Each structure stands twice: as C-alpha cells, then as structure tokens.
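Structure in, sequence out. Go:
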C-alpha cells in the first residue's frame, strides 16, 4: 500500500481493544495478569483473522476460476443452442435459455479517439437531444482518495497534515477520512 508499513502508524494508545464479549478492555501497564489474558485473546483473534483472510483469498481464486469456466461454457452453449435452434432447455431442474440484453456506451470514432473525448461528445449529444437527465458530472472516488494521499507526502496519515498541504480552494469541498483496519502480509 504505497510503501505504508505498520511501523509507520501513528501512536495507537487511543485505539480500544475488545474482549470475547465485545466489551472494551482498558490496558493498564501494572496489571500483567490481565495483559497476559489480553495477549492470549489478541493472539487467538489474530490467528482467526489470518485464517479467514487465507480462506477469503482461496474462495476469491475459486470464484475467478468458476467465472472463467462459465464464460467458456456460455460461448460453447450459445453456439450449440443456436445451431440446434433451441432457445431453451431444462437440466437438473433449471431452465437454461438464451437471454438478450442491450448495452450502450460512448462510440469512439477511430483508434486515435479516446474514451474521455467520446464520453464528452456523447454527453453533449444527449443534452442537445433532450436526454440531459442521463448526464452526470462525477468524480472518481479512487482518484480523489489518491489525490488526498498526495497531500501527505511523508505518509504521516493524519487529517491535519493532509488538510494543511491541500490547496485552500479544496479544503471546504473535500471530506477526507483516515480509516484504520487490520491487514496481514507474508511474514
């Protein structure tokens, strides 16, 4: 993540920890027995977190494989069903049929044309044709987050630093949030 390492995080003293019942546990330096129990709980939770992350990655890979297989089968079945003149058939209690959908996008005029220019022409044509309600001015959330990170060149990850480095005209129109979450990587 942009070279952001866990040791780069700000002081986490204010971050609460929770016990098995979801209640906040306050860590007191002089209570080593309670800290030992808390460390045991933290270890269990970390192991559970890592195992669930591994499981999620495995399921995502399996889902991608299934999607690829379905895509290939879709092409094959479409050819077969059209060749046989079968718009539908039933197998294992499911009806498999040819579904037609309509999609539309901005038309690029040639290889030199880019998507942005094509979208701009389309937006103008829609407005002139009376379909202006379809045209929305938007800002890509990922690009905006990336811009906000640029205002934190030292990766301090505090709102004060980001807003301090942000141009004045953007301060009142961009809401920046710092989100902390647990992550893992190979040891």
């Amino acid at each position: 993540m942009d070279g952001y390492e866990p040791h780069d995080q700000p002081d986490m003293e204010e971050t609460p920890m929770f016990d098995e019942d979801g209640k906040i546990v306050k860590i007191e330096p002089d209570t080593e027995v309670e800290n030992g129990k808390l460390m045991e709980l933290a270890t269990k939770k970390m192991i559970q977190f890592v195992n669930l992350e591994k499981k999620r990655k495995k399921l995502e890979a399996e889902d991608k494989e299934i999607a690829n297989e379905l895509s290939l089968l879709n092409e094959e079945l479409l050819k077969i069903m059209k060749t046989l003149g079968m718009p539908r058939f039933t197998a294992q209690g499911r009806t498999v049929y040819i579904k037609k959908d309509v999609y539309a996008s901005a038309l690029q005029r040639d290889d030199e044309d880019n998507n942005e220019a094509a979208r701009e022409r389309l937006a103008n044509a829609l407005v002139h044709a009376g379909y202006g309600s379809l045209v929305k001015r938007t800002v890509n959330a990922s690009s905006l987050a990336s811009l906000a990170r640029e205002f934190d060149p030292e990766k301090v990850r505090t709102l004060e630093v980001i807003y301090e480095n942000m141009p004045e005209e953007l301060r009142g129109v961009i809401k920046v949030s710092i989100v902390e979450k647990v992550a893992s990587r190979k040891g």
